[in-house]
Each structure stands twice: as C-alpha cells, then as structure tokens.
Write a structure and sequence with these properties.
This protein is an all-alpha fold and 153 residues long. It folds into two domains: 77 residues, no CATH class; 74 residues, no CATH class. It has eight helices and no strands. Helix 6 packs parallel to helix 8 and helix 7 packs antiparallel against helix 8. The radius of gyration is 15 Å and the shape is globular.
C-alpha cells in the first residue's frame, strides 16, 4: 500500500504543477517528465495488478499516466483491458500514445482474439472521428502495431 501511495503522490505533484501550465509545449514537456519519472521508479514500487487497476480506473489523468508507465516497465502488470480503455477512451493524446507504446509491448503475448480486439480499438481511433491522425506520431506507432498484429503466426 505504501508504494501505491508513493506512486499517487508523484502523480499528484505533477497535477499541481500542470494546473499552472497552459496547454501547449510546456505542458507536454511536464507530462513527458512525469512519464520518465514514473518509469524510472516503477521497479522500486511494489504495486500489484489490482492496485494498478484501481489507480488507473479511479485516478487522475496523471495517475493514469503513472499506471501506463508502470505497465511499460513491468511486464507482469501489463493489462490489455486498461490499454484498450486508454486507447479507446483516452483522456488525452499523450495518454493514448503511451497506451499504444504499452500495446506494442503486448503483441507477442496476445491470443488471436485479444490481438483482434487491439486491432479493432486502434482502427476505431484512426482517421475521421478518431484521435489518431495521419502525419502525427500516433499514426506511425499505430501502423507499426497493426503491422505487428498482421505478421503474427
């Protein structure tokens, strides 16, 4: 429980700073800093799958980013359902991109039905009506994931 509180405190400290920063480059850089900070601490935090799910489901935008960073660094915490939620119902483009990064790491371990669900979630977010637009970084990553799914045995 102490580790969960530490992770949430890191997220809260960024939330406080983010309130003072207008949307734009500086805000994005603060989110990148949070992502890197959480990834660097991920292995020292003793957080289990249930705690991670709770942090993602009940937490702030920053806590959701911390949860994704934990999944990125700790394969045993990777949760397809949370990744699908962060792709399909993301709170920001930043969150969605980080979810795509985790999704890419999941590809080798997915069953065929899981891979199909991931493909469908990504395709739903691409192009008109979705957040993932051509000529943006998320598009290139989403295409790489779809290629990885297609090339599975």
């Amino acid at each position: 429980m102490e580790s969960l509180q530490q992770a949430r405190q890191v997220a809260r400290s960024y939330e406080d700073a983010l309130r003072e920063i207008a949307p734009g480059r500086d805000r994005l850089l603060k989110f990148v800093e949070l992502w890197q900070d959480a990834r660097s601490r991920a292995k020292e935090w003793r957080i289990g799958p249930e705690e991670l799910r709770r942090m993602f489901d009940e937490g702030s935008d920053s806590e959701r980013i911390v949860a994704l960073a934990l999944m990125m660094e700790r394969p045993e915490l990777r949760d397809l359902e949370l990744v699908l939620q962060a792709i399909g119902d993301s709170h920001s483009g930043f969150e969605q991109y980080r979810a795509l990064m985790v999704a890419q790491q999941l590809i080798p371990s997915l069953t065929n039905p899981q891979a199909r669900r991931l493909r469908e979630a990504i395709e739903e977010q691409e192009g008109a009506g979705g957040i993932i637009q051509p000529r943006e970084s998320g598009w290139k990553l989403s295409r790489s994931i779809l290629d990885g799914i297609s090339s599975r045995p």
